[in-house]
Amino acid sequence: MQTKRPATIRDVAQAAGVSTATVSKFINRLQRFSPEVEARIRAAVDGLGYRQNPAARSMVTGQTRTVGLAIQDVRNPHFANIVKGANRVALAHDYSLLVIDIEENPSGERALLEALSRRVDGLIVSSRIPEESIDWLAEIGKPVVFFGRLSRLGIPCVRSDGYQAAYMIGRHLVELGMQRIAYVGFTRARWNAERLHGLTDALAEANLTPIVHEIDTPSLEAGERAASAVLLGGKRPEAVVGYNDLVALGLMHEAQALGLRIPEDVAVAGFDDIPVARYMQPPLTSVDMRSEQQGEAAMNRLLTAIAREEGESDVLLEPRLIPRASTRRPLD
Amino acid sequence: MQTKRPATIRDVAQAAGVSTATVSKFINRLQRFSPEVEARIRAAVDGLGYRQNPAARSMVTGQTRTVGLAIQDVRNPHFANIVKGANRVALAHDYSLLVIDIEENPSGERALLEALSRRVDGLIVSSRIPEESIDWLAEIGKPVVFFGRLSRLGIPCVRSDGYQAAYMIGRHLVELGMQRIAYVGFTRARWNAERLHGLTDALAEANLTPIVHEIDTPSLEAGERAASAVLLGGKRPEAVVGYNDLVALGLMHEAQALGLRIPEDVAVAGFDDIPVARYMQPPLTSVDMRSEQQGEAAMNRLLTAIAREEGESDVLLEPRLIPRASTRRPLD
DNA sequence: TAATTGAAGTTAAACGTTTAACGTAAATGT
DNA sequence: ACATTTACGTTAAACGTTTAACTTCAATTA
Predict the structure, then answer these.
(1) CB B303 within 8 A of CB B89
(2) Is the CB atom of residue A28 positioned under 7 angstroms from any atom of strand D?
(3) Residues with Cβ < 8 Å from B204, sequence gap 6 or more?
(4) Which among A77, A87, A114 has the least Cβ separation from residue B101?
(5) 10 Å Cβ neighbour count for A108?
C-alpha cells in the first residue's frame, strides 16, 4: 500500500541534467529555454510523474493559492449559492476554497478565523460576525472581503441592496391594496435592519406602518413558530413578509396548517428567491438577492486585492422582485 | 497598511532565551519543561503574537491538516448536509475542509482531484465520479473515502442503503393500495440503480411492476419536465416516486399545475428528506438518507485512515421512512 | 574591433518548521 | 559510591521549493 516517495524538483533536475532553478523556472514559465533543455525537462517531469509540492512552494512564496470562505450555514440555500459562485471563480483562477461553516461553533468564530487566516491568501467573511472580531480582521494583514453586511474599517464588501429589495416588496404589496402588513424580521445587527427600513419607507408612502415581529434565527422552524403569534394575535395582517425565504416558507406552512388560504387570507413574501420558492404551493413571491453573483463578485474582489490591484471598495448588487402567486390581489 | 513580518519560532526562541527546538516541542506539547522555561516561552509567544506557519510545518511533517471534499453540487440540500456533517467533525479534529463543487467543471474532475490531492491529507469523494478516475484515486497514496457509491479497489465507502430505502417506499405505497406506481429515476451509474431495484422488489411482492422514466440530472427542473410524460402518457399512475426530493418536488409542482390533486389523484414521494420536504403543500413523503450522518461518518472514517488506524471498510447507514401527506390512502 | 547587451543556465541562500541525536545534571537504583 | 536512568534542553540537519545574484557565451552595436 505504501507508495514510494513522490518525485521532487531535484529528482527532475537530475534526470534532465539541469539545475533545480532551471526546472523551477520552466514549471512556472518564468523564462524561455532552448528546445533541447525544454524537451529533457518535460520528459523528466512526465517520466517521474512530478508534481509541485504546494507546501514547500507556499513557504517560500508566502502564498497559498487558497482562500477562506466563512459562511453562516451551508444548508441555507442562499449561502450554498454563494459557495457555488465563489467556487466557480476560484477554480477559474486556480485557487482552492477553504470553506468553514461558522454555525458549527466549538470555540468561537474568532478562533476559527484565526486558524483559517494562516492557511489562506485572503478571506471572504459572511455577515453575522461579531463587531469585536472585525477589528481583528482589519489587522491580520490579509485581504478580507465581506459579503451581506456593510463595510467597515476599510474592508470592502459585496452585497445586494436590502433596502431596495424590501422597498420593492413593500411597494408591491401596497399596490395590491394590502393595508395591514407584517414583517417577521431578524434585526440582531444593524445592517440586518435595512430590510425593515426599506419596507417601512415603502409603506409610509401609503401612510402605513409594518407590524414587526422579531425572531432569533432566520430558519424554516423560526418562521413556523412565529406564525401563530403574527397571524392570530389581534387583527390578522393581510400580508406578511419574512426575513428570508426560509422564514417565509415556515410562515406559509403554518398559516396553511391554521386553515388560512394563501394569498386570499394572507399573502406571504420573502427574500433570496431560493430555488424551491418557485415550486411551493402557491409559488412564493420573493426578491432575487443575486446570491450566486454575490459569491462571484466577492471572490473576484478578493482576488484583485490579493493581486494588490486596486478594486472598487464596495459592490452593491441590484435585487429583482419576483412576484408569484403567494401575493396576489385578494379579489383576483 | 503593510503589517510587519509575522513572528517566527526563531523570534520566540530568542525572546525566551531558549532554542527553537524547545519552543517547537512546547507548542506541540511533546515534552515537559521546567516552570520557568515554560513561563518564558508563553510570555514570548503572547508578546510576539506568534502563530505557527502551517506551510512550513506541512513541509516537514508531510501533513496538511486539511481534507478535500469533492461533491456534486452544494445547492442540492443533500450535499449541503454532507458538507455540514463533514465540517463538524473536521473542526472537532482541527482539520480544515477544502470543498470543491465538481459540477463547476472547467477541466474535468480528474484534473481537479489531482490538484486537490497535493494539498490535503485525504479525500472524500462523492458518488458520480467516472470509473477511470477511480483507478487513479486508488493509486495516489492518500487515504480516500467514497460516499454514496459502492466501494471499489479497496476504497472504503459510506452510504445509506438505497435498496432498503426504496423498498420501504415501495412497501409503503403498496400498503396504501397503490397499483400503478411510476419511478422517475436517475440510473446513469450502476449504484444509482439500487433504488430502482428496491422499489421493484417491493412491488414484485404484490405482483406489480414500476413504470420507469429516466431523467438525465436529478433536479427540480428535471422533475418538472418529466411530469407531463409520466402523468399524462397512457393510464395515469396512482403514485410516482422521484429519484430524490428535488425531482419529487418538481413532479409535484407540475402535477398541481396540471390540475391534479395530491395525493388524491397522484401520490408523490422522494428520497433524502431535505428540510423543505416537510414544508410543502402537501408535505412530501420521503426517506431520510441520513445525509448529515453520512458526512460525519465519511469524515470520521477518513480521519482514522489518515491516522493509519484500521477502520471498517464500509459503513452502511439505515434510512428511515418519513411518511407524510403526499402519500395517503386515496379514500382517507 | 572592442564594448555592450541579451539569452540561457547555475549557484547558493533563504523560507519556518520539526526531529533525530546528542549533552548535562539531577535523581534513582544497587 | 558508582552505574544507570530520567528529565530537561540543545545542535544541526533536513523538508522541497523559489529567486537574487552570478556566470558564460553568442549576438548586437558603436
Answers:
(1) yes
(2) yes
(3) none
(4) A87
(5) 12
> Tens digit of pLDDT per residue, chain B (332 long)?
445 688 999 999 999 999 999 999 999 998 989 999 999 999 999 999 999 999 999 999 999 999 999 998 999 999 999 999 999 999 889 899 999 888 766 566 777 777 788 899 999 998 677 777 778 877 788 899 998 877 777 889 999 999 999 999 999 999 998 999 999 998 877 677 899 999 999 999 999 999 999 999 899 999 999 999 998 878 889 999 999 999 999 999 999 999 999 999 999 999 999 999 999 999 999 999 999 999 999 999 999 999 888 777 889 999 999 999 999 865 54
CB contact under 8 A, B56 and A51: no
Q: How far does the CA of B15 sit from the C1' of C20, in Å? A: 25
What does the alpha-carbon distance between residue A168 and residue B250 come to, in Å, rounded to a whole number? Answer: 28
Residue pair B230/B242 in contact (Cβ under 8 Å)? The answer is: no
D2 C1' to A35 CA distance, Å = 73
Nearest to B98 by CA among A223, A132, A120: A120
- Nucleotides on strand C with an atom closer than 7 A to protein CB? 7-12, 14-21
User: Which of A80, A91, A220 is opposite residue B104, by nearest beta carbon?
Assistant: A91
Nucleotide nearest to B50 (CA to C1'): C16
Nucleotide nearest to A58 in CA–C1' terms? D17
Query: Which chain B residues touch A66 with a CB distance below 8 Å?
Result: 98, 119
